[in-house]
Amino acid sequence: MLDERKRRVLQAVIDDYIASAEPVGSRALARKHDLGVSPATIRNEMADLEMLGYLEHIHTSSGRVPSAKGYRFYVDGLIPPKPVSDEEKVLIDRWYQARVKRIDEVFQETARLISKMTRNVSLVLAPQVSQAAFRCLQFLPLDDHRVITVLMTDAGFVENKILEMPDGAEFEDFQRMARVINRVLAGKTIRSISESSLQMIEDEIQDSGLYASALEVIQRALDASKKERLYLGGTTMMLEQPEFHDVEKVKNLLLVLEEEELVKDILHAHTGRGLEVTIGRENENSSIQDCSIITATYHLDGELLGTLAVLGPTRMEYSKAMSLLEYMNTNISEVIRKYHWKV
Amino acid sequence: MLDERKRRVLQAVIDDYIASAEPVGSRALARKHDLGVSPATIRNEMADLEMLGYLEHIHTSSGRVPSAKGYRFYVDGLIPPKPVSDEEKVLIDRWYQARVKRIDEVFQETARLISKMTRNVSLVLAPQVSQAAFRCLQFLPLDDHRVITVLMTDAGFVENKILEMPDGAEFEDFQRMARVINRVLAGKTIRSISESSLQMIEDEIQDSGLYASALEVIQRALDASKKERLYLGGTTMMLEQPEFHDVEKVKNLLLVLEEEELVKDILHAHTGRGLEVTIGRENENSSIQDCSIITATYHLDGELLGTLAVLGPTRMEYSKAMSLLEYMNTNISEVIRKYHWKV
DNA sequence: TGTTAGCACTCAATGTAACCGAGTGCTAAT
DNA sequence: ATTAGCACTCGGTTACATTGAGTGCTAACA
Questions:
Q1: What does the pLDDT read at residue B208?
Q2: What is the pLDDT of residues A123-177, one digit of tens each?
Q3: What CATH number does the domain located at A86-127+228-339 have?
Q4: CATH topology match: A4-78 vs A130-224
Q5: Would you say the C-alpha torsion B229, B105, B258, B329 has a positive or negative sign?
Q6: CB within 8 Å: B247 and A247
Q7: Do B158 and A164 touch (CB under 8 A)?
Q8: Nearest C-alpha in B relative to A257
Q9: Domain boundaries of chain B, sorted by first residue
Q10: What is the model's pTM?
Q11: Which chain B residue's Cα is nearest to A259?
Q12: Helix (H) or strand (E) holding B231
């Protein structure tokens, strides 16, 4: 374990580097933070820290830069508390109370706020619709051979999908089907709609001669609702970070972010209860190994609903991002509770 | 008017510059395009073209670059036809025929295809929902004091919005209202729902004591449907263009593109029937004055529905982008016709 | 008279050398 | 154990010469 002074030096180095994005040297360090020792001593300490793997050296005679291990130690223990400021809280709260919104706006704006305040990319994974309670399914005629299926849930999600009517089917049939479906599924969580529920529907519908297509229709409507939605924010902001002054890097990162499934996988890797920080190489995905991700999962009644995350260069303001995520987390949980989300 | 040879030289210069992004000189020009004259002659012609304002010179002794006027002349007359290749057509057609989709997916994918094939940013402005025919409005209870309003149109658009119930209102009241509304508005274009229609509804509802909130509720549901939707594609692609190797430029452009209203205004400036090309300084908006926009409007029964556009550096492949837009335009018109869009 | 070869000239880009300065590592003094 | 001092490193900057693609002009040419 590092002694007190080493820890202070390490913290000073990292704080400095996060603020300046430049390798930090002993003299500058002694000047800014008063550690009560001379640059020479700091040099010795830094050499030790490098031996131990917490700092890195590009070459002799350029300042030190934190290593992944250094950031890890920093995040796990040294990190200075940097609570969300009151003005920021006001800003956020005002927004959340502003007015009743469609639930997807809530997620979109949450992403926007997070990225605006951390100046990094933010990611918000919204709960699967399938975790909400089924409210009703309606069919509406679109034209002679197509119907619109509208699925509604407690949380205010409305999912719609165009279905082709099987040959010979009449819209009347769909309406009858809707009545059956709604009766059987009323109040159920979408996810919990199991084989047995579908079986019941099947049984009821069978006499009407619609059996063949009925299950498929429901299945497709439900499938559409299983998709988790991903909201991105601040892809522009990241251009302000010095590490993204290189267009190649920007392009790589943007390409990753465009792959929705890939991003979801990355987020799904973090399902722990509290905040999780993944630093540089710790990331599975090699194209973001010079980035860090902070994730926060939100829950209701102990059930995992979704994830908030900040993605930035390893040199990111961990403290700020972490406290902000924590704060937004409580906010979004609150909103979801208000919307009567059922699990 | 330029004589034949000048036109050929101008075209060669622009073609070359579009392909290479480098100022083009007389020697190289003579080598690649065989114009049948020596570099010296080409130099003379280029000097003339510069006099006339079609070409520009950063300084003595670097090749020529087309001026806005040069591009304009090129676009208006010289442009080599570069039809969409058969493979590309196959690719596009296959996609369009793939399966029945939600209409918003059609627009989103159209944007993606355009940007993918032009390697530039694409913009797709979808028709206002209000240009579609009203199909039905439904209220669904969300909780004690809120209802979900679902508005459906012929074209398969489903718009939903959460409304707060006025104090003392019962969900029953909303259902009665819905019946009235649906009867009165059936078959009307949403845009054409005028004061008189609303008046009729008002009259019918009045006795029920709901008058005060009824109009407002409908109005808000309709308002939500007035919004045109904008779909963007290929913001990543543009990073491949050499003019965007500078992060500052990228940032500026991305900032503009983030301002949805601004972008819509830019597109609204072009309502002409065919393709319109706006080159560099011709753009009103100063932050895109080193870009060109090509717009194509699509129509149904003579009525303007929406816009497809490509946004790229002034040095863009006009010919390709133009023919592609034209092709996509017929495609999307076709799709819309199939979807029974009513104006 | 229009075209072309030749040539002097220009200027961005590239390469090279010198220098500066922030920073280190080591040693010796405190 | 700490620190002052000093030699050394190396990226970054500046200055300067070189290169090469390109022009403009003039004179020769068809």
A1: 60
A2: 999 988 777 778 888 887 777 777 777 777 776 677 777 777 777 777 888 888 8
A3: 3.30.450.40
A4: no
A5: negative
A6: yes
A7: no
A8: B236
A9: 4-78, 86-127+228-339, 130-224
A10: 0.85
A11: B236
A12: strand B230-233
